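Re: zinc ion structure - here you go.
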Amino acid sequence: MSNYEAVIGLEVHVELKTQTKIFCGCSTEFGSEPNTNVCPVCLGLPGSTIVLNKSVLEYAAKAGLALNCDISLLSKFNRKHYFYPDMPKALQISQLEIPIAIGGHLDIEVEGESKRINIHHIHMEEDAGKLTHQGDTISSALSSLVDYNRSGVPLIEIVSAPDIRSGEEAKAYLEKLKNTLEYTDVSDLRMEQGSLRCDANVSIRPVGSKEFNTKTEIKNLNSFRAVQRAIEYEIERQIEVVEEGGQVLPETRTWDESKGITVAMRVKDEPDYRGMVEPDLPPIEVTPEWVEEIRATLPELPDVKKNRFIMEHGLPAYDAEVITSSRKLAEFYEKTVALGQDAKVVSNWIMGEFLRLLNANNLEITEVKITPEYLAKLLSLVEKGTISGKIGKKVFAEMFEEGKDPEVIIKEKGLVQISDEGQLKQVIQEVMADNPKSVEDYLGGQKKAMGFLVGQVMKATKGQANPGLVNKLLQEALEELA
Ligand SMILES: [Zn+2]
């Protein structure tokens, strides 16, 4: 890599979660029976007339503003002609000349350093139908099935500037992009359902060069991890080609996840889309006031929220970064803090137990039953000493699964912390009688024997003894023997 640098641009397609399609009233619902959400418009039947769905324009502008773009007060739709069965009218309506949003940016962090990735533009377009090839690969398939439910689902395509230099930066950019768009609520952003898709353009050049060399386009990237790996592989492949005196061809390549390689699909000849202004739609005109109205609907975005958590709540930068990495997580945290809990304590529980259980069970935050109210209540119980922190974790796990009131769980399971001095003194006497060697060690100056004895008391009480009190009482009991 030393003599070369990579030049990478990402094209990200995001399906907007409007109720209906971009130019007709058909439902956009994912997973319906094939070819049931269709009409003459999205089937491209002759004579059908189209109207732009106003929500699509609003969602696209909202996404543009969240990504620091300028909104075009006048933009246009174009026809992009191509012949492929996923688009029955043999053209796609897109924005080729004047897109809805231009010139944004996102700041990413890689290896502790901040870097700005510019966004060239965002345009609106209609999605195509979905082809399913009946065979292992497209070339060996004997037939293909086509589902037009997806045809006409609104998309925005977010085109980055070629500012990305590594697979790691590409992944960081995608994570930040997804994170920011999640806050705007314009899309489901589900890569596995295809509502977030990414193609990567990759080329290499000698370090210091400003030229753009022939690039390849990588498709079939199904996860952020795949994007990173595919780019890293492709950079190495192109360097090898050039070092061996060859030429990088302008190919479309596909990522083979199981083999960990990119494979050439076809050489890209610059396609002639015979682009023309869409004659059935007027230009889209919006006013600066309308843009400001859309801006006013934006929630607090992750970077701003993160800084506020640092400045107002006194959270460490790392905590603030993790908690704002999901809007729903940030809201959960903030609601719990608003109920009077200490910010850092809440952050510790969310970053510890909460995220651990979410990841272990592969769940989204919306799928769990625990509420900020119950977490706040649990933290109060730990603070008051009703239960120990260790028991608190057990209760938390139960709340996470069952969504029950922590007080109910503690009562049902008899988990209340033992703070009764008489009861604890008795256990301590038993533990000391059972472990004379440790008692002797302690009295002989080996202070660490104390930890062992405390541990035994906790074990005897199934973790329910108040640890502070156990320490105090045990110390007293040992000193009496000295
Ligand atoms: Zn339709």
